[in-house]
Amino acid sequence: MKKNYNQFKEFIKQSKKILILTHKGPDVDAFCSSLLLKQILLELYPKKKVVFRAKQNPSLKLPGMKEIEIVKELKSEGFDLIILTDAGDLSLCIEDTDNVEDSIPQIIIDHHDTFFEKKKNTVLVNENMSSATEQVYMLFRILYKNEFKLNEDSSTLVQYGIVADTGRFLYDITTPNTHRVFADAKSIVDVDLEDFAYRNSKFPREATHAIIKYLESLKIEKDMAYMFVDRKDLEEDLELKQGASEAQAFLRDRYLRFIQGVHWGFIIKPDMNTKDSWFVSFRSTKGYQDVRVIAEELGGGGHTYASGVLIKADSIEALLTKILNIIEKHLKA
Ligand SMILES: [Mn+2]
């Protein structure tokens, strides 16, 4: 048995109150892996207290989502173990205003390529799988063997998490094991994937105004495109502020790389919680640009063709200069 697997079990056994957290702005895999983890832990250890806290609900219906504790501020008081899913470091899960003790033992269950400095009292489980959901499933499958059984709810979570993060098995993070795990889950309950993919790709009509604003900023340089909205515009325009996140996700996933001649690029959104922080998301078509190295140099991380960074800059102009300089450097390299 792998050493970190045994450590995982030890950490769980020694704890009484477990807090599950996932990355900020959680996606489907973040929610599915967290909910799956919570459900399995409660089945295996009914006497332990297991709480999953987040600042927002999933945008579509997921089994067990009613048990998510929605909070304004994340707090770790009273817990003796923190488990992070779909994130490699606590800093990706909390904001400055949150109250989470870094000294509490931590288990990190992740699948991203970016690795953080290892801290004391921390167990890392990351075998670079397709999704955090697949990693949670494999961990329990191997550690608990026949004690661990899927039911309808957990099978649904496994399928949704994998389908969301692999883009319905299109991305090359999909491995034979991903298909095996999916097959295990599908033999318990057959979820309607077409319906799920459709619901998962909906966006609110309120995002339209923000989409227009973003498109006004579109710049294309050779095979790269980028878009942004400025913090000043966001502060003065409530409609833009409310739609910015959805617009950013829509344009990032379904517009940026789909312009003829464009293969990669980035999109910027101001972080409204801190006055000088910005989210920058990079995306590339397979085989074109390694955007992870660019994000890493800016202090972020992710996958080769999908990466991101939360970055500080005084103005949108200063931020763009910083990003474009690093891009230029990597293009020459
Ligand atoms: Mn993920």
Automatic annotation (TrEMBL):
Give an example GO molecular function.
Answer: nucleic acid binding
Q: What PANTHER family does this protein map onto?
A: BIFUNCTIONAL OLIGORIBONUCLEASE AND PAP PHOSPHATASE NRNA (PTHR47618)
Where would I find the DHHA1 domain in this sequence? 256-328
Q: Where is the DDH domain?
A: 17-162
Phylogenetic lineage: Bacteria, Candidatus Dojkabacteria
Q: What name appears for this protein in its UniProt entry? A: Uncharacterized protein
Fetch the InterPro entries from UniProt: DDH_dom, DHH_sf, DHHA1_dom, Oligoribo/pAp-PDE_c-di-AMP_PDE
Q: Which Pfam families match?
A: DHH, DHHA1
